[in-house]
Design goal:
This is FMN reductase. InterPro entries: Flavoprotein-like_sf, FMN_Rdtase-like_dom, NAD(P)H-dep_reductase. Residues 2-139 form the NADPH-dependent FMN reductase-like domain. Helix content is 41%, strand content 18%. With 182 residues, it is an alpha/beta fold. It has a single domain (2-180), classed as Flavodoxin domain (Rossmann fold, 3-Layer(aba) Sandwich), CATH 3.40.50.360. Strand 1, helix 1 (13-27) and strand 2 form a beta-alpha-beta unit. It starts with a strand and ends with a helix. The model has no long low-confidence stretch (mean pLDDT 96).
Amino acid sequence: MLGIGGSLRTGSQSERALQIALDGAAEAGVRTRLLTGPELVLPFYDAGVPERDERATRLVEAIRQADGLIVVSPGYHGALSGLVKNALDYVEDLREDRRPYLDGRAVGLAAVAYGWQAAVTTLEQLRTITHALRGWATPLGGSINSAETKFDEAGGASDEKTVRTLRLIGRQVAEFAVTRTV
């Protein structure tokens, strides 16, 4: 299970939300890996340039090997972050694979923004991108208003419902991945 997201700020609210969702996947018995912040600082994706730097190659290989993904983006001005969008653009490199794009993989999604409008619209965009990449968005997605919910360093949040939702998203991805690979 691969977690992608967060922001350039180590320990950001969206990175902490992503870790909680990955913890839910781990509780379901799958191995998890996290790619956030500096690991996602990549050259702008260009399909016409076949060469990839080390970080982009690592990202594409991690996605290729993953049986499921969890993507959490901060909501900036009503949209997902450029950092997360650019990382997702690299999925295009999988177009010729045996499993093209995100085909046959569950993708858990959540958005963290300072306000409900940005959180909801960012989640909607993540779902649209997931569908365009042939991924199976989990039935449950998370829209988290960081004006109301604060994540802590211990892996929790001020709102227990948010923690339960994120863990359930992780479990849904893990359960789908296990049933697809058996």
